[in-house]
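G., before I forget:
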Amino acid sequence: MTTAANDALVLDAAAQDLLFREARTANTFTDEPVSDEQIQAVYDLVKYGPTAFNQQPLRIVLVRSAEGRERLVKHMADGNKPKTASAPLVAILAADNEFHEELPSQLPHFPQAKDMFFSERPVRESSAQLNGALQAAYFIIGVRAAGFAAGPMTGYDADGLNKEFFGDGDHSVLAVVNIGKPAEDAWFPRSPRLAYDEVVTTV
Amino acid sequence: MTTAANDALVLDAAAQDLLFREARTANTFTDEPVSDEQIQAVYDLVKYGPTAFNQQPLRIVLVRSAEGRERLVKHMADGNKPKTASAPLVAILAADNEFHEELPSQLPHFPQAKDMFFSERPVRESSAQLNGALQAAYFIIGVRAAGFAAGPMTGYDADGLNKEFFGDGDHSVLAVVNIGKPAEDAWFPRSPRLAYDEVVTTV
């Protein structure tokens, strides 16, 4: 445990450790597989995370085939290639910039939000980026809730990935996440974090 | 419980409910206060959430004074004003676009990342937006871990908030979050979520 679990929280200490205190960005993995059932359980938990107007721009591509892995790895930054090639499962997380098409069905008490707020593409892109990132973070937490290490990466050719895996011009990759059980020596020593007083002010 | 807790996850069912399944975006709150100690416990848990290059752009302004509340509420969209005025505590979450100044101390094994990747402001802004949003999501989860409802909002005059609470031109508000114990009838019925097959594909 990196620091003592905090009993000012309601969440139990084991869950604090699992999701935050002992969870780390793994760089190496064992060969234990990650099943579709486990990813579905992750999704069915984290889909409830809050977003603006209940928009759900997040899209997830699970890379399972050797061919898919090859198409992915070639767009990764060199430093990310070995771990992306060897992780038991890799997920490409992207924002769908046309998420507004689903708003009437996903926000039934306010279906007019689609046209009132999201008729312009730049507004949608900005909203999909922010809310897709919130959903990406919920997904990372969910992967940890399933007992796996998540290794999120943003070092890649984003345009290349967008074209390679979506190709419709409507999706923007947010992160690529390696998923699996950490191997020995899976991580660097924990890097520092800013202190509370450096981040939080009160007015 | 909105759906059955999933035993394909390692996280226990009570924690699943607390963080996702029973957690909701509250619109009304009791007058039970939210202490600085509780927010510090939240921060000291969620600060461990992963970001690219261990960057930590998130800044949090806790609005506690009557004067601060007035300065905040005037920039909120009309529909958000009453709950922002009445929540026990409101947090303004913003991204610091000059986060790179802290990279050498926060990423001690790779201090040259600051100059290699973040010398250009537009790159920093884009990175701060994405990683600040990840941290905002971790914070929302942390508020729930402390037993409170979080009510994140993006309906406000962003430029007005940036000038009112930061004024240095270097911060971009990400969300405003009402925090407190939910009152009776604190929420609308749960809106739908996209099904797994609508979000996840496999290659």
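Residues 195 and 201 of chain A are 12 Å apart (CA to CA). Chain A has one domain: 24-181.

More on Monday.
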